[in-house]
């Protein structure tokens, strides 16, 4: 029993026996039931109330309610607090219940999926939730994998199967999995029913690319790796069926382990409000103490004179105890400075903003039939304050679709469009096997093929032979290629259209159709690709017996392996490669070498020896490959376009103008990431310098970062500048005074850092250097980073820069980054939904990000700030009247207004107008927000609601309360009715003050509202009308007759509001409150207008907007930049030559800048970000190599 408890509490290893539920159940492994909901019918009420009372505000109001139940200290009825408190709790409970209902619905949908489970020798349909660890499951083509399975057997040869892992890592290319050889033949359910093997493996974890275990069966053991596993969330593709043993189920699966728990995210305004509420509570206590001291003095000096006929209440026996009770009474009365309705209103406004995002037709993708979705309602205003965006690359910036764009053959470049009206080539007449979807426009290349140019033919022959693509011919001439990487698919398809068609392969042959003639080559060897070699080769023998090596790879490694006679063509091709790279294309160089029979035999023997080596096998193979890949003849180069998502360069340009820094964090290689950086205009040839950090040690990374900073300072101060010279002359200068030097950086710099270098840069003693260097750059690209490193980079910027961060991605490898950032955005579409499930917002195209931030985010921040400023203003104006009245009522805790007005003021009379402003208000239209990105900067600097703005609102509220109390008090103290009866009574004063208050705050919101809708008109004038209707009803004789003890103001409203002096008093108070506000705003608009004021003025006086001139890309420099990028993985060459992935049926693996310069904003930005420099432009690329 002790052992069992230990396994459950801290699982160190997992033991699973096939087809033995009784054995597996003793370990109490998790079932396959997924539960993301929080409540059920029984637990909802107690758990939800417990959660709600974790909020300090709710506990505070409950405390006030308890105080109001004590008659000795309460001058207000208990319902003035319990009604709004119950309303808040109810609304929140309904919202939580609705959210949880949808979680239940989603859980049920997944848990009730059907799966075929082997039970007692036969396959039975079972719900996913009923699948248990140790069960054997049958999967069919295109089915989702129900749990983490050990692949036992497959309908494919050698126990192979093909899976798509889009929901796990965002990659749509196929991956191969293979069963252990001993179980690969157990394809029959009868054989599988008798399988009783036991698996001992690692406990549940979130590592998608690693699995370690051992299979024990028939007194033998077999090693298990990730290649033997099918993970939940994968989809079986191009495999008729397979069987798997459940190892991890439900919450233990790697998919769910990666999902984790979503961090509770709070906005900066939330955190500021918590601070302000504490300050207000302290202010409330101070006011209570002042009035309590006043009560003590009054009771001692004046109240004692009335003891003979007006004694103290029973528990009060001295003036000090009276003051103690008075303190608590005033705490109750003055608590409306922080009304509970504030929190309800904030949630309602956020909900409204979320629906606006969901309903935005301009963020709807018709191709995917996917709308934008706000998956949280608590972060909308934070969208208006983003300073850093962290983006994935593949599937987020790009479509992961490659197209053959240009090529260079024997010094001749093809694919350049000279005529923009040039039509697409029609290959169907020339080649019946051509792919109809292939696009190319340069007819010179097609003519070169037709006339039989030998170099052109050899170029496309190489592309048709040197690859690891699989082919399926579904019908005569209908070819479907399935490539391990989209690069390969694009190159083989290009060769196909130009007459060199790859038809099929066996482990030892490749069959092609060359210019209509079928040719079969003997495949002698595949020299596989890897990230160190950056090239792949094949050695083939043609039907005439000639042996030739074909090689394709990075120009940086291939050009140095050419025969010396290639100098002329290499020089021309290098220029072409430079041009292609400047256009952001992905390039490969192509070469060949003829081998004699003796050379082949000698090399084959050394290769065979290296392949069978038991130690240092990889190094020996690499040496063998290096030996034969020499003295090659250059054929040319290819240029492939990795298609960006629509509008990516424009979106990045607009966001940059809004002073948002964009970092790309990708698992791709440096070359691929840099090429995409140039394609999407994050990197440009106009940049002052691009720094590449690639050191492998802590010291080398530190030196490279330091030299980058030196270079920035040198370039920003001009060549020959004193600081630059001094720093450049020192071999290893002491740490720079970053706060002084980096603040003055001017120039457009970019930083590219590799994963191994980033690991050192993220260490505690180097964090500051890395952040200061990176944040001085306009663009940062981190390559070869792990999911954990993505999250660490985000956390580092959050900690060091105190800036609002946003992470956007599309795959499971982006989940940790999405959850770490203040705001997480998931890209929905073809690459899976795991990032979407972990995100706060989702949509299908990266280009929608500019509308989410610059329109919805900016509006949400503006609306929330205006709402909070007005809300605190009106409540201080409302509450502070009680404070002034205390000095005139003997500090007796008597209220100015009647209790019903106190209850209804924040719920009915003033709630809807401020809600309408908070939901619908806007300063400029959406298209102006996009046209003038600089409008976004006030949110980044938190200018619209901060401690200074809060104190201004409080001061205005206190000023209003002074006017609302003392003006009616001064006028009515000597006023009389027309019949001579004095008006100086408590009830007339209360009605006059309350009416003046409602009118003043209504006029104030009219002034604050910048965008009027039907709702604004209805709510403002409707609330004002409802005040008079409800007041006349509450002061009517009808209610007094029914409840004589509750309604003491009978007839007060009617008699008071019939007096002209009362209306003159209200008008005077309103004018004194509003006129200074109007005067201040007119002066501010005239003397110190904001950019939004200028935009509004421009909109009014100019019907036609003037677009800023488009910037022209600068000329390319003479710097050499390789455009090499090849999204390929090692291992497919060996798989092909082994024949393990061959099928009898040859089944394919188918399937503006601102016109108004706001110097005050720039000044504030420098104060806030002393480490963030402005940017200019220039050009150069530098590699900071290790010394």
Automatic annotation (TrEMBL):
Going by the UniProt record, its keywords in alphabetical order are: ATP-binding, Lipid transport, Magnesium, Membrane, Metal-binding, Nucleotide-binding, Translocase, Transmembrane, Transmembrane helix, Transport
Quick check: keyword Transport in the entry?
A: yes
Enzyme superclass (EC): translocase
Reaction(s) the record says it catalyses: ATP + H2O + phospholipidSide 1 = ADP + phosphate + phospholipidSide 2
What GO molecular function annotations does the UniProt record carry, in alphabetical order?
ATP binding; ATP hydrolysis activity; magnesium ion binding; phosphatidylcholine flippase activity
The segment(s) forming the P-type ATPase C-terminal domain are 836-1089
Q: Which domain of life is it from?
A: Eukaryota
The positions flagged as active site in the entry are: 392 (4-aspartylphosphate intermediate)
EC assignment: the record states: 7.6.2.1
Please give, as recorded in its UniProt entry, the membrane topology of this protein: Multi-pass membrane protein
Give any single GO term for biological process: phospholipid translocation
Q: Membrane spanning segments where?
A: 60-89, 276-298, 318-344, 867-888, 900-920, 950-971, 986-1007, 1019-1040, 1060-1083
The answer to whether UniProt assigns keyword GTP-binding to this entry is no
The subcellular location is:
Endomembrane system; Membrane
The UniProt annotation places ATP binding at 392-394, 488, 529, 552, 586, 666-668, 784, 790, 813-814
Its required cofactor(s), as named, are: Mg(2+)
Positions of Mg(2+) binding: 392, 394, 810, 814
> Which segments carry the region annotation Disordered?
1163-1187
- GO CC entries: plasma membrane; trans-Golgi network
Residues annotated as domain P-type ATPase N-terminal: 16-82
- Please name the Pfam families in this protein's record: Cation_ATPase, PhoLip_ATPase_C, PhoLip_ATPase_N
Belongs to which family?
Belongs to the cation transport ATPase (P-type) (TC 3.A.3) family. Type IV subfamily.
Q: What is this protein called?
A: Phospholipid-transporting ATPase
Q: What is the protein's species of origin?
A: Astatotilapia calliptera
Q: Which gene encodes it?
A: ATP8B2
């Amino acid at each position: 029993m002790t052992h069992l408890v230990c396994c459950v509490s801290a699982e160190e290893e997992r033991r699973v026996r096939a087809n033995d539920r009784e054995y597996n159940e003793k370990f109490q492994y998790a079932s396959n039931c997924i539960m993301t909901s929080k409540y059920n019918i029984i637990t909802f009420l107690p758990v939800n109330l417990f959660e709600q009372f974790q909020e300090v505000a709710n506990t505070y109001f409950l405390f006030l309610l308890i105080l109001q139940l004590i008659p000795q200290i309460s001058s207000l009825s208990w319902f003035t607090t319990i009604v709004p408190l119950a309303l808040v709790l109810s609304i929140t409970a309904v919202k939580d219940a609705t959210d949880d209902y949808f979680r239940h619905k989603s859980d049920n949908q997944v848990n009730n999926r059907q799966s075929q489970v082997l039970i007692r020798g036969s396959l039975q349909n079972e719900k996913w939730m009923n699948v248990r660890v140790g069960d054997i499951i049958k999967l069919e083509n295109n089915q989702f994998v129900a749990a983490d399975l050990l692949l036992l057997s497959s309908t494919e040869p050698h126990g192979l199967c093909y899976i798509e892992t889009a929901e796990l890592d965002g990659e749509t290319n196929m991956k191969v999995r293979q069963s252990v050889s001993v179980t690969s033949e157990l394809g029959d359910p009868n054989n599988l029913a008798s399988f009783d093997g036991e698996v001992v493996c690692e406990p549940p974890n979130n590592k998608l690319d690693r699995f370690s275990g051992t299979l024990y069966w028939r007194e033998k053991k077999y090693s298990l790796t990730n290649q033997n596993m099918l993970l939940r969330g994968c989809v079986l593709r191009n495999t008729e069926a397979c069987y798997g043993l459940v190892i991890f189920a439900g919450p233990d699966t790697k998919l769910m382990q990666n999902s984790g728990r979503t961090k509770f995210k709070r906005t900066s305004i939330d955190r500021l409000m918590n601070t302000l509420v504490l300050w207000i509570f302290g202010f409330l206590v101070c006011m209570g103490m002042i009035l309590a001291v006043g009560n003590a003095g009054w009771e001692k000096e004046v109240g004692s004179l009335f003891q003979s006929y007006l004694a103290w209440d029973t528990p009060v026996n001295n003036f000090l105890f009276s003051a103690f009770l008075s303190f608590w009474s005033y705490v109750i009365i003055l608590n409306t400075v922080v009304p509970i309705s504030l929190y309800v209103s904030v949630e309602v406004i956020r909900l409204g903003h979320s629906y606006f995002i969901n309903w935005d037709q301009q963020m709807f993708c018709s191709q995917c039939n996917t709308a934008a979705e706000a998956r949280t309602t608590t972060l909308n205003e934070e969208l208006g304050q983003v300073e850093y965006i962290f983006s994935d690359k593949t599937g987020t910036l790009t479509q992961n679709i490659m197209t053959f764009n240009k090529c260079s053959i024997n010094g001749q470049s093809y694919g350049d469009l000279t005529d923009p009206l040039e039509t697409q080539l029609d290959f169907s007449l020339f080649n019946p096997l051509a792919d109809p979807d292939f696009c190319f426009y340069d007819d010179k290349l097609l003519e070169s093929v037709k006339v039989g140019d030998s170099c052109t033919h050899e170029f496309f022959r190489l592309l048709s032979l040197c690859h690891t693509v699989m082919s399926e011919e579904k019908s005569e001439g209908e070819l479907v290629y399935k490539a391990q990487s989209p690069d390969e698919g694009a190159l083989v398809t290009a060769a196909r259209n130009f007459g060199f068609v790859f038809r099929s392969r066996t482990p030892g042959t490749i069959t092609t159709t060359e210019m209509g003639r079928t040719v079969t080559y003997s495949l002698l060897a595949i020299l596989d690709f890897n990230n160190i070699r950056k090239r792949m080769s094949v050695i083939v023998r043609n039907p005439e017996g000639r042996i030739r090596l074909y090689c394709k790879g990075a120009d940086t490694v291939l050009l140095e392996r050419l025969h010396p006679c290639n100098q002329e063509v290499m020089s021309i091709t290098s220029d072409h490669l430079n041009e292609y790279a400047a256009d952001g294309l992905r390039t490969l160089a192509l070469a060949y070498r003829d081998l004699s029979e003796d050379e082949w035999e000698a090399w084959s023997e050394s290769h065979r020896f290296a392949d069978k080596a038991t130690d240092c096998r990889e190094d020996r193979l690499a040496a063998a490959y290096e030996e034969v890949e020499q003295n090659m003849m250059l054929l040319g180069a290819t240029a492939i376009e990795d298609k960006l998502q629509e509008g990516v360069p424009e979106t990045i340009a607009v966001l940059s103008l809004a002073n948002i820094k964009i970092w790309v964090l990708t698992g791709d290689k440096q070359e691929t990431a840099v090429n995409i950086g140039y394609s999407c205009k994050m990197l440009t040839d106009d940049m002052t310098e691009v720094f590449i950090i690639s050191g492998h040690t802590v010291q080398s990374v530190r030196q490279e970062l330091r030299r980058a900073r030196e270079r920035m300072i040198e370039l920003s101060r001009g060549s020959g500048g004193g600081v630059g010279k001094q720093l450049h002359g020192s071999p290893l200068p002491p740490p720079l005074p970053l706060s002084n030097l980096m603040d003055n950086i001017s120039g457009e710099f970019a930083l590219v850092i590799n994963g191994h270098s980033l690991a050192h840069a993220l260490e505690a003693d180097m964090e500051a250097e890395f952040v200061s260097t990176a944040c001085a750059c306009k663009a940062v690209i981190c390559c070869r980073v792990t999911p954990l490193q993505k999250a660490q980079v985000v956390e580092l910027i959050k900690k060091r820069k105190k800036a609002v961060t946003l992470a956007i991605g599309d795959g499971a490898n982006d989940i940790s980054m999405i959850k770490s950032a203040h705001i997480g955005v998931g890209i929905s579409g073809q690459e899976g939904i795991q990032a979407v499930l972990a995100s706060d917002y989702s949509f299908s195209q990266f280009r929608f990000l500019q509308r989410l931030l610059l329109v919805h985010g900016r509006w949400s921040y503006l609306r929330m700030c205006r709402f909070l400023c007005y809300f605190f203003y009106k409540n201080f104006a409302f509450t502070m009247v009680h404070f002034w009245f205390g000095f005139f009522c003997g500090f007796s805790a008597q209220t100015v207004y009647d209790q019903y007005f106190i209850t209804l003021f924040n719920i009915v009379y003033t709630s809807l107008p401020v809600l309408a402003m908070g939901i619908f208000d806007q300063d400029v239209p959406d298209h102006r927000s996009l046209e003038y990105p600089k409008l976004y900067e006030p949110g980044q600097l938190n200018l619209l609601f901060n401690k200074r703005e809060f104190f201004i609102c409080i001061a205005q509220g206190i000023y209003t309360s002074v006017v609302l109390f003392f003006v009616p008090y001064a006028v009515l103290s000597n006023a009389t009715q027309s019949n001579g009866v004095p008006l100086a009574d408590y009830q007339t004063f209360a009605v006059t003050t309350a009416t003046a208050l409602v009118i003043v705050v209504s006029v104030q919101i009219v002034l604050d509202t910048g965008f009027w809708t039907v709702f604004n008109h209805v709510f403002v004038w409707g609330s004002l009308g409802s005040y008079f209707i409800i007041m006349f009803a509450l002061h009517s004789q009808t209610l007094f007759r029914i409840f004589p003890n509750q309604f003491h103001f009978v007839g007060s409203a009617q008699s008071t509001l019939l007096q002209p002096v009362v209306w003159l008093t209200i008008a005077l108070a309103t004018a004194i409150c509003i006129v200074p506000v109007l005067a201040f705003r007119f002066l501010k608009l005239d003397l110190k207008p904001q950019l939004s004021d200028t935009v509004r003025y421009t909109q009014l006086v100019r019907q036609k907007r003037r677009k800023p001139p488009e910037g022209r890309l600068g000329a390319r420099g003479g710097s050499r930049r390789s455009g090499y990028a090849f999204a390929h993985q090692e291992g497919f060459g060996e798989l092909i030559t082994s024949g393990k992935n061959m099928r009898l049926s040859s089944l394919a693996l188918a399937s503006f800048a601102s016109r108004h310069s706001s110097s005050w904003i720039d000044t504030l930005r420098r104060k806030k970000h002393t480490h963030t420099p402005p940017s200019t432009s220039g050009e150069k690329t530098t590699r900071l190599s290790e010394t």
